[in-house]
């Protein structure tokens, strides 16, 4: 009788060990996923790995180097949109914004820099993005950028330029750019002939 009890408990112990091992293996298998693999909005792993992001990024750089600016912009946008967690996403978005600025698309360039600032604030390019976005806002306010094909100065509405400059202030409130952006608002309305808004703009410096 004592031998039977011993066998029974030994069998229970063996079963417990098997169950624990199976559970541990399942846990490891579920958790052992590539942390660099791009994820979709639901948090799942996208089927395409980060190597594809690098491949598309390199293709975009080749397009940029060959002077195919519009195609390069689209290619960089594709990388940033479809591989948001890859190591190439931030730089792709930054390059997209830079090329948009280069071809005179100020609003799109500004918004693209804003996207970078909001989603890639740990990037080494973050400070450059803040500065370049400010340059875009100033260019829009002064109308100094020319469209490549038409050769005409772009002139955006005062309210649009003001919103851009205020966003620059909000992104870097303690930098030297913040008071400069506020001063630019006053200058903007002065050049547009709105004395009241111009004075209010200068007062905010």
Give a verbal description of the structure.
- With 205 residues, the protein is mainly α.
- The chain contains nine helices and no strands.
- Helix 6 runs antiparallel to helix 7.
- About 14% of the residues have low confidence.
Task: Please specify the SSE layout and strand pairing.
Layout: H1 2-31, H2 50-65, H3 69-82, H4 89-102, H5 106-119, H6 126-142, H7 158-171, H8 177-191, H9 195-203
Number of strands: 0
Q: Whole-number radius of gyration?
A: 27 Å
Oligomeric category: single chain
Q: Secondary-structure element order, as H and E? A: HHHHHHHHH
Please summarize what this structure is.
The chain has 205 residues and is an all-alpha fold.
């Amino acid at each position: 009788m004592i031998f039977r009890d011993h066998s029974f408990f030994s069998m229970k112990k063996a079963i417990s060990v098997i169950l624990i091992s199976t559970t541990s293996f399942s846990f490891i298998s579920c958790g052992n996923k590539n942390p660099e693999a791009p994820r979709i909005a639901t948090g799942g792993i996208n089927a395409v790995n980060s190597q594809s992001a690098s491949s598309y990024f390199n293709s975009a750089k080749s397009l940029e180097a060959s002077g195919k600016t519009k195609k390069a912009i689209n290619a960089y946008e594709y990388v940033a949109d479809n591989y948001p967690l890859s190591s190439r996403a931030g730089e792709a978005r930054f390059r997209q914004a830079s090329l948009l600025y280069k071809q005179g698309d100020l609003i799109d360039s500004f918004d693209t820099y804003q996207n970078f600032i909001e989603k890639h604030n740990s990037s080494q390019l973050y400070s450059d993005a803040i500065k370049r976005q400010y340059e875009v806002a100033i260019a829009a306010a002064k109308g100094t950028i020319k469209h490549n094909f038409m050769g005409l100065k772009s002139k955006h509405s005062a309210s649009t330029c003001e919103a851009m400059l205020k966003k620059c202030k909000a992104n870097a409130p303690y930098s030297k750019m913040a008071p400069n952006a506020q001063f630019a608002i006053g200058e903007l309305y002065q050049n547009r002939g709105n004395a009241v808004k111009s004075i209010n703009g200068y007062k905010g410096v």
